[in-house]
Amino acid sequence: TGTALSMAVSPAGNMIATGGGDGSVCLWGAMDGTLLRTIQGHSDAANVVAIIPDGNTVVSGGGGGDKTIKVWHAADGSLLRTLTGHSSSVWALAITPDGSTIVSGGYDATIRLWNLSDGAPLDTLTGHMGPVRSVTISTDGKTIVSSSGHPDYAVRVWNLSDGAALRTLTGHTSGIQSVAISPDGGVIVSAGGSAS
């Protein structure tokens, strides 16, 4: 019933998850567009959604009034766990290729790593000066790339295993809304947008 803020497609291509401004997470059949279920649980907007590689689990990040990451069972929409730690809106989510780790980015300028199986916090990466708007993980599961808004406007590259900052890429003059890594890991692509 609110604006659709984010979308993720399952690796098998059979399911789409969307996050809404009304706090709902909707799961859809990709082949025919059928609404499979609507999941309620966030007290603010569901800013971002991700699907675990096996397609059985959906992860969502909440807005500033919520600040949580929620892990849901895709088959019935049941809540598996709630992760807390960000001090403001969760804007970005990525899942490692092996499905073991959640990487989240927040308006609090932090990147947080979580164990998917039990929700335990693994690490907090700091270095961005602005809100983290996007995170992605290389296909080999070794590297995190993140992007930020004002006043940072930077892309940062991190070692996933130990959280070490590898490099900072600059050049944007507005908020960087999205980053992606080529399948071979050799190229990073970033896209800018609003000042925030």
Summarize the structure.
By secondary structure, the protein is an all-beta fold. Helix content is 0%, strand content 52%. It contains no helices and 18 strands.
Structure explained in plain terms:
The protein has 196 residues and is an all-beta fold. It contains no helices and 18 strands. It has strands at 4-9, 15-20, 25-29, 35-39, 46-51, 57-62, 69-73, 79-83, 90-95, 101-106, 111-115, 121-125, 132-137, 143-148, 154-159, 165-170, 176-181, 188-192. The strands form 5 sheets. The chain has a 4-stranded antiparallel beta sheet with strand order 1-2-3-4, with no helix packed on it. A hairpin with a 6-residue loop joins strand 17 and strand 18. The two termini are 25 Å apart. The model has no long low-confidence stretch (mean pLDDT 96).
Write the layout of secondary structure elements.
Elements: E1 4-9, E2 15-20, E3 25-29, E4 35-39, E5 46-51, E6 57-62, E7 69-73, E8 79-83, E9 90-95, E10 101-106, E11 111-115, E12 121-125, E13 132-137, E14 143-148, E15 154-159, E16 165-170, E17 176-181, E18 188-192
Antiparallel strand pairs: 1-2, 2-3, 3-4, 5-6, 6-7, 7-8, 9-10, 10-11, 11-12, 13-14, 14-15, 15-16, 17-18
